[in-house]
Fold these 3 entries.
Entry 1:
Amino acid sequence: MAPASVLKGGTIEEQNFAGLVEALYKSNNIDAKVADVAKTQYAGLCKQVSTEMKHLFETFSVSNDRLDEFYSKILDNQPDNAELWIVMKLILVLSHGNAAVESGFSVNGDM
């Protein structure tokens, strides 16, 4: 979930998130309750970002900021977004690194 996508919000972003959550559910990484609640919480986050968190999301820099730290500050220890944080942590675990470096194992395969 790129901060720019959350900032943009809208139907397409929510559909993309719903597809992601469904894939996590089908692969038994989350249960149905977490999936349903996370979708609602994502929509709520998009609304919050369009108003009170707008500046924070606008100033996120891909080259200077860490995505895990960014979302941790926003979602960790926030009971209203607990299920969304579960999904975000799973997303952040997915490796996008060099296959040669990973050679012996694959987190993506386990997911």
Entry 2:
Amino acid sequence: MVREFGRPDPDELLARLKAEEEPAKGRLRVYLGAAPGVGKTFAMLQEAHRRKERGTDVVIGFVETHGRPHTAEQIGDLEIVPPREVPYKGVIVHEIDTDAVIARHPRVALVDELAHTNVAGSRHEKRYEDVQDLLDAGITVISTVNIQHLESLNDVVKQITGIGVRETVPDWVLDQAEQIELIDMAPEALIQRMRHGNIYPPEQARRALENFFTGGNLTALRDLALRATAKGVEERLSHYMRGRDDHAAPLAVTDRILVAVDHQLLGKMLIRRGWRLAAGLKADLLVVHVEPEHGARATLTVEDERNLRANLQLADELGAQVVRLRGRVAEELVQYALSNKVTQIVIGKPTRGRWSEFFQGSVTHDILRNAHGIDVLVASEHSSELRRERD
């Protein structure tokens, strides 16, 4: 397309005008906790006061104090947009008045309990949908959520606590957050807060301490919350490093172990060793099989196929993420490891002779040569564990 010198491009001008007409999308900040009572709402209100002191126009869209006096005191002189009053089964239920907040159009709005389910008859089923409306209107939102409400962890939380969580928020909602701040508290301190009546009334507190608020449950939930926060830090760090150097190796805050297996009996030993590494580091475990190119899979015997299935079944039973790839074995393994922030690769020692490796190459040596920034553990086939496997 030829443009006359000095005249603006019509498409650029139209895009500029459209951008000026549409409000910039608001930003989302989330205070994340392992359980109720760690102080998320308290921290959110403190942040609101700090911003107000700096001259920011901030309002309360919706805050739930749960009758906790110290939390209620933190509201202080913050402006509150009155909530909607909705009659429901003979009682009045309060919900955020999204339209009123948008009409008031502050710079920042506080909206508590992101995973909350709105009362029947509301415009949206979930509160995070109201938050999306505020963000689309150009309003920055500060919110709160507990780790057990994250949709991807629903089954894990039920397995840990024995309690199903009905109110969940999709992972993509937190993924769009500009900042997720962990509000942390040791399980022992949280249990003491519960016993002292600082979280729930006495009868409700007693039931919670007998069921959800046990030391084991709170420790496990705290671990999930720490991992989720570390994952966000890791992603931002990786993005930063990619911005500095396209060839930089991926940096990981948490370890990820990749075990490379094929049909060899050595595979089970490698998987178990990888599992022990992952358990000790509290790391993710990936078990990857690469089907060689050029139809090499067709040369496998029936016994080879059975061994491969047994190896991958063991990986699945141990809770590993099983991945199947196809192509040049070393190239696919290294590319997958780099793309998925793997920190350690576990592989078997070459089984072919030196002359065979000289003419045909070695997968192990290729991985060692190209897995920049990733630790590689080469396990010997002569280990006692492998001998037991063969016996």
Entry 3:
Amino acid sequence: MIQASEMDKRGRRALCHSLGRPLLLCVALIGQWRYSLNTEKLTATMQIAERVHSLAQEHNDAALMIGACRVLAVTLYFLGDFESARRYAKRGLQIWRSVGVQSPSEEIIPPAIACLCSLTLCEWHLGEVASSRAAIAEAISLAKELNNMHAVAEALSWAAGFGHAERNPAEVDRLTSDLIELSTRHNFVYWLAQAAVLRGSARSASGKTVEGISWIEEGIRDYRATGSMIRLPYFLALKAEALYLAHRCFRSA
């Protein structure tokens, strides 16, 4: 039996088809993709991403293609296929820079910024550190230029994750302070939870292990409450690292 939520999704897609509005259909699919990315298996998420890409190819629309490249880049990144993720992120940015299309007003976060964030971590995993730094700096700058607070929050969150990867707790602490202030002001509970975990990791790495673990545990609790699962393994790994540092400090005391 099809659940009501699935019938809802099919109903929205059918309506978009009947109206002959491929952009609205793409936005509906991307909403479904975003929900799947955070709560479902990545194999299901990839199927939606591939459908978005097929739709963009079918209509030969630049705006749709940038969005399609974004969903493929993000999904492939979390699947661990960094080469393919980087390729789609670069493709999306290439179209955006050459055509200069505007993001649909229905998009919470402009796909170009999401492509830059994906490119940041892909480049880092593939050893291109200088390119990685340039990509995240551009993402933050562009998000602020567009005055899109959701995009600023996403860029700051990924920048903090990049700072952790570079083992730079001072930079992570600075970025998460900005993210916490922004998320508190705009009631972005999703980004606030992630900021708390990353701040806790930075505090723990700076020797404030008790405070750090407290921040991490609070952040993980609030992140779970959003219903999202995609970054939970990473956050639990940060908690394990903090507990190890605390144990090492206790033994050396």
